[in-house]
Amino acid sequence: MSRKTITPDMRVGELLADFPELEDVLISLSPAFKKLKNPILRKTVGKVATLRQVAQVGNISVGELISALRKAAGLSELDITDEADGSESSDRPDWFDKSRIIESFDACPLIEAGGQPMGQVTGAWKKLEKGDIYELITPFPPAPLIDMAKDQGVDVWSLDEEPELTRTWFCRPG
pLDDT by residue (tens digit) across 147-170? Predict the structure, then answer.
């Protein structure tokens, strides 16, 4: 059985299934990746998070991440262009107004306990009326949720307030 190639769009679960020897390499690249040792979080995040998204969470360039993993796996270099996704910016978007936040959810305790907020968060933004904002608080940028929201036409703004605290706002355009 041949192993897959390591690219930015590979899911974390695929990487660790095909290249189990890269777990320690991945974890060594960013303190945020230590959370992958949690089997529940690893199972849930591993299914949905791509290496591109994981790079965002770990605050490292996708090129650096892919290069380190490919090198450790004995694969040739891959030319990766780092692209900013625009989801995180200190520039407040025009649609953001704190008074329009209808619900706030601190997912930090859930995540620290090995859970994942994906179902609760997606359910909440689907119920938003035009112009309403849902606030999510997490210990790292929720890259898979941000990408999913954008794919569904939801406006998103994410801001790292301090190490291990990210606020992300989801707004139904109106």
Answer: 889 889 999 998 877 767 889 999
Q: Structural domain boundaries of the chain? A: 12-72, 98-171
User: What would the pLDDT profile of 5-45 be if each residue is shown by its tens digit?
Assistant: 898 889 898 999 899 999 999 999 988 788 777 777 777 77
Residue 1 structure tokens: 């059985």
Alpha carbon distance, N-terminus to C-terminus of the chain: 50
Taking phi first (over 0 means left), then psi (-120 to 50 degrees means alpha), and beta for anything else, what does residue 131 get? left
- Cα-based angle 10, 52, 161 (whole degrees, multiple of 5): 145
Written as six digits, the tokens of 29 are 């690249």
How far apart CA 23 and CA 95 sit, in angstroms, is 40
Domain 98-171: CATH class, spelled out:
alpha beta
Could you tell me which of 22, 52, 173, 45 has the C-alpha nearest to residue 107?
45
Tell me how crowded residue 163 is: count the other CB atoms within 10 A of its CB: 11
Q: Is the pTM of this model over 0.70?
A: no
